[in-house]
Amino acid sequence: MPKYTAGSGHRPTLAKLTELTEQTRTKLTHTGQKLNTTRQKLPKKHQLGVAGVAGLGAAALAFSLVPGGGSQPSTTESVSASSVAFSSEQVEDVKGGVEKQLNDALTQATSAAKKAAEDAKKKAEQERKAKEAASRSAQRAQVKPVAAKSYGNNLDGWIRESLDVMKKNGIPGSYDGIKRNILRESSGNPNAINNWDINAINGIPSKGLLQVIPPTFQTYHVPGTSSNIYDPVANITAACNYAADRYGSMDNVNSAY
């Protein structure tokens, strides 16, 4: 429709203007609903900004639909086609401007909602990782490594290590009982060997700290210890295992056995 100018004879009818206005209101309502839905997902500061844009658009539409005289008609009868002092092009311009403002606001609101969701997701992921790290630290603090027990490479260390092995295998015996028999049998020499008694004559001489013959060592050898009869711990544990079977404990042995 051509724009109205004085003397041109072209004035838009009131019905046409009303139709354009209703179309604009319908689009504004639809856009406003979408904007409101998006606004509800945003933080409060973004909600206020979007609401302000929507209010501005509505105000612009209402102001632009006032006739050129600057005031609303006082009666229904005074509103006629001849009294309308603006054109449909003006209405379309206002309509387009308001819709652009609302669409821009909707785009901004949607972007803000997407960014807020991404920020929330990142924050949740950071919190999850922090909790997992704290949990791992707590577990590491609870599980303290146990230092391996060490023993001296001497008679005292050999006896103590043998007692720990014997305890794990249910073999009785005491520190004093073992030491007493070692001093009598070998004087504490792990490489001692008897080459003169009946066992030596029979070709199976007694060997080691507790003077064990090879067949006895093999029969009463304790798993986990050395298979070498001269090994101090292996010799002590095998001899104590034999004494426990024959005498109840090495503590009950007071002479050659």
From TrEMBL:
Signal sequence, renumbered to the chain: none
Keywords: Membrane, Transmembrane, Transmembrane helix
Transmembrane segments: 48-66
KW Transmembrane (keyword) present: yes
Positions of the UniProt region annotated as Disordered: 113-141
Top-rank taxon, per record: Bacteria
Residue ranges annotated for the Transglycosylase SLT domain, each copy included: 183-254
Biased composition (Basic and acidic residues): 115-134
Protein name: Transglycosylase SLT domain-containing protein
Species of the source: Streptomyces flaveus
Lineage: Bacteria, Bacillati, Actinomycetota, Actinomycetes, Kitasatosporales
